[in-house]
Amino acid sequence: MVSQLLKYIILTKSFSCSLEQKSHIIEVLMSNSRFLFIVVPLLFLAVLVMPNPGACQESANCLACHSAMKGKIKNAGGAMVELNVDADKFGASKHGALSCTDCHMRFADNPHSTPSGDVPQAVLALSSKIASKFKVDPVAGAACSTCHEEVYKMVLGSVHGKNIVDKHQMDGALCLDCHGSPHYITSVKDESSPMSRKHQVETCGKCHGDKKIIEKYKLEENVMESYEESFHGRKLFLGHTKAPTCSSCHSSHDIRSKTDPASPVFGKNKLVTCGKCHKGANEKFVPAITHKRPGPIPHYGEKLLIILTIGVFAFIVIHVLLEAFADIRDAIFRKKEEEE
Ligand code: HEC
Ligand code: HEC
Ligand code: HEC
Ligand code: HEC
Ligand code: HEC
Ligand code: HEC
Ligand code: HEC
């Protein structure tokens, strides 16, 4: 009964899918009996709400369910899956014209009962290398390489990629750590992007300001603070359009350890890196910027200055109070003497 009703709604409701696509949705539904219990009420809503004026792409098949479902569910592998994909936000993202299955290659056919899509060998191999980062669908995480091959190669060769692939950790940054949710990726020039000038420092800072990561990899603990307090950081926060963000000095995808001769901040490479903005930067100029904690002399010098300043203020305040107290006392005594 329910399924008949559903069929009726899908076939008659005027969302802009072709008859063929509608019948595909129905087919998917019918072949997944467990979905009837979870999804039918939601789908009911979806089909009523969905009449998305855009063309009915293949994505609409998936979105019929995924834009209506809300909340999280534990999948067969034990991972928590966020079910909702916001159709409008997805459509407005850089990938709005893609099919869901351009990334979710396994789901190409019948999405859930038999994930059987053809996955190219290279993507499959990559997906197993990066699996520690993806609990739900590592194939989707590897699929970026089919369109962004060069970028992907660079990231895998970077200090972040090696952390995942060679050291088998999951602390290094991969695409989504920097670009945000896979479904709502916007241009890095767009303010909303986590890599935009507005948000980049905060995004790198999620890891580079994290005590656990700093200790585990013995990284300089002063990185974020030193940047924020530098000339550069202050200029950036004031909205200076030429002030460098982290990636201006470290590059964006090919980020290297400071001890790697290929790093833009290794030794003489700094002449070029700083020289991009400071014409004629020479060997005397380039050490001016570092993340290291200031040495003990300036450090204690600063402390001493603070103590001195507070001391002087305290002295003045106490002095003024004592004087005021003396004045009041004198005034009272004088009054008493006059009364007597
Ligand atoms: C009939 C409704 C329905 C349709 C259509 C549907 N999904 Fe799902 N999807 C679900 C439900 C329910 C889950 C919850 C997890 C589960 O049971 O696998 C889910 C989970 C997922 C997951 C998480 C992975 C996992 O193993 O749990 C992905 C990725 C996904 N769907 C992608 C897609 C794609 C891509 C399409 C279109 C080709 C699609 N879905 C079509 C209902 C649907
Ligand atoms: C640009 C590639 C890409 C496209 C296009 C894409 N996805 Fe995804 N999706 C991913 C990646 C990567 C993940 C993360 C997988 C993981 O964490 O294991 C993901 C995760 C998901 C999840 C699980 C969410 C979670 O984080 O728990 C669902 C459900 C899903 N996608 C559905 C869809 C649907 C429906 C569409 C089409 C409207 C779609 N995806 C389009 C790449 C994509
Ligand atoms: C450490 C952070 C970081 C990681 C990890 C990262 N990106 Fe980027 N990405 C950036 C930054 C910063 C820019 C902006 C570069 C610029 O403006 O020159 C960018 C730009 C891009 C661009 C557009 C410009 C270009 O260079 O082609 C694409 C496409 C892209 N990234 C894809 C990816 C993919 C795919 C991955 C995963 C393999 C990835 N990114 C991983 C930080 C990152
Ligand atoms: C089927 C091809 C395809 C796949 C798969 C794909 N992308 Fe893209 N991506 C594109 C296209 C096309 C654009 C838009 C380019 C443009 O507008 O200049 C884009 C744009 C981007 C941008 C924005 C770059 C900018 O302009 O600042 C980022 C970041 C990005 N993709 C990351 C990813 C990530 C991460 C994945 C995997 C989860 C992925 N892409 C998967 C085709 C793809
Ligand atoms: C003006 C150029 C410049 C900018 C901007 C910059 N860095 Fe650096 N960074 C360097 C140099 C030079 C080094 C080499 C070590 C040093 O001198 O401290 C370095 C080293 C590092 C290191 C290794 C630290 C260690 O010694 O363990 C990390 C991590 C790092 N930077 C992250 C960042 C992050 C995150 C940002 C943005 C908040 C950033 N950097 C902004 C120039 C820069
Ligand atoms: C998801 C967490 C994460 C994010 C986000 C992240 N990093 Fe890292 N980064 C790491 C980890 C972990 C390492 C150490 C990897 C190792 O040594 O195996 C590292 C190492 C580095 C190093 C090399 C430090 C050295 O040894 O000299 C630099 C430079 C760096 N990151 C810059 C950046 C910049 C710039 C961004 C933002 C555009 C960024 N990172 C975003 C986790 C992250
Ligand atoms: C993306 C451009 C950019 C890069 C790369 C860059 N800077 Fe700067 N830097 C600026 C801007 C903008 C200012 C602020 C200038 C002003 O307002 O006069 C500045 C200011 C400074 C100042 C203080 C004022 C001055 O001009 O003496 C120093 C010192 C400095 N940078 C050193 C460096 C060093 C060292 C490097 C390389 C490790 C570097 N910068 C890389 C853009 C950059």
Describe this structure in words.
With 340 residues, the protein is an all-alpha fold. Among the domains are: 1-97 and 106-113, no CATH class; 119-175, no CATH class. The chain has helices at residues 2-12, 19-31, 33-49, 59-66, 87-92, 100-103, 121-129, 138-147, 149-157, 159-165, 175-179, 200-208, 211-216, 223-229, 231-237, 246-250, 269-275, 296-339, and strands at 72-74, 80-82. A two-stranded antiparallel ribbon has the order 1-2. Strand 1 (72-74) and strand 2 form a beta hairpin. The protein is elongated, with a radius of gyration of 31 Å. The N and C termini lie far apart (108 Å). Residues 11-17 and 47-57 have low confidence and may be disordered. The structure holds heme C (HEC) (7 copies).
What distinguishing features does this structure have?
two-stranded antiparallel ribbon; 340 residues; binds heme C; 2 strands; mainly alpha; single chain
Draw up the topology in text:
Elements: H1 2-12, H2 19-31, H3 33-49, H4 59-66, E1 72-74, E2 80-82, H5 87-92, H6 100-103, H7 121-129, H8 138-147, H9 149-157, H10 159-165, H11 175-179, H12 200-208, H13 211-216, H14 223-229, H15 231-237, H16 246-250, H17 269-275, H18 296-339
Antiparallel strand pairs: 1-2
Helix pairs in contact: 1-2, 1-3, 7-8, 8-9, 9-10, 14-15
Bound molecules: heme C (7 copies).
